[in-house]
Amino acid sequence: MNLPPMRLWSGQTLHKRFLPFERMFQYKLVLIDVDIDRLTEAARMSGLFTINRPGLFSFYEADHGGPERKVSLRSWAEDLFATAGVTLQSGTIRLVTFPRHFFYKFAPLSLWYGYAQDGALKGIIYEVRNTFGERHCYVAAVDAARSVHTADKNFHVSPFFDVSGQYRFTLRAPGPTLDVVVENVKDGTRVHLANIKARILEATTANLLKLAITNPMSTIGVTFGIHWQALLLWARGAKYHSKPILPKFKSTVAVAAIPTKSIKPENLV
Fold it and tell me: Is residue 186 part of a domain?
């Protein structure tokens, strides 16, 4: 793959709740896309971006990987890909996530794209975090430019949804745009949809500065938005679910599924 050590994605995420009432909101986001084997090179691309030290925008290896952090990010990702039967054979692994902005980072979803040596996308890890500081990963093999896969929901994300049903992931290999859809389906009925749609930007000092000026709350605003939307759901009478015990297993393998239609074409990959 002939890609730079780091790229930027600028776009938005949409969330839509279907039951017991409909509610939809969306907000802007800025993501970094780094080759986990070329972090030193990524740090050289701009004085506004740093690795493992404070900066306007930064990336800390300790924010990802296993909780014990005794192995490299690559080794951690390769071991997790292997649980879904994915062998990369030294192919590229790129991580798409929220950067630290000044001192703060919260990434509700980070995407690990695993590629074969010929550049074909072979696997995906959805690293999901909640506001309680907990994490669970859903991992799947990918065998096409557009892939749909499902997994049981095994992780508490929102107090206004219980831990039941399945996730249906719709993924397209990144190109000029980034397109991801995650649906929560329960008893054959979709209860929630979230997507990410973004366009690629070069990781230049000018673009980083522009993003810092035009989206000054791009990272901390994610946390604020989550709590604000939770307050609005509570005000409308959404049922509150206490946080269950965290499952002992840290990951779930997703399997291929038949693609289905979503709410609107513009909200899909």
Answer: yes
Which pTM value belongs to this model? Answer: 0.88
Report the percentage of the chain scoring pLDDT > 70.
Answer: 82
1 part of a folded domain? no
Q: Look at the chain and report how many structural domains it folds into.
A: 1
| Residues across the chain | 269
The number of C-alpha atoms within 13 Å of 150 and in the hemisphere containing its C-beta is 14
CA distance 56 to 81: 32
Q: 114-159 pLDDT, tens per residue?
A: 999 999 999 999 999 887 888 999 999 998 878 999 999 998 776 6
- What phi, psi does 104 have (nearest 5°)? -115, 145
For 64-115, what is each residue's pLDDT tens digit?
987 656 789 999 999 999 999 999 988 999 999 999 887 778 788 999 999 9
- Separation CA 58–CA 205 (nearest Å): 13
Strands in the chain per DSSP E: 6-17, 23-35, 49-51, 55-59, 93-97, 100-102, 109-115, 121-129, 135-141, 146-152, 166-172, 177-186, 189-202, 251-253, 255-256
Q: Phi and psi (nearest 5°) for 185?
A: -115, 130
Q: Is 187 left (phi over 0), alpha (psi -120 to 50) or beta?
A: left
**8 Å CB contact between 39 and 227:** no
The domain in which residue 196 lies consists of: 6-267
Write the DSSP symbol of residue 47: T
CA-nearest of 29, 68, 36, 14 to 181 is 14
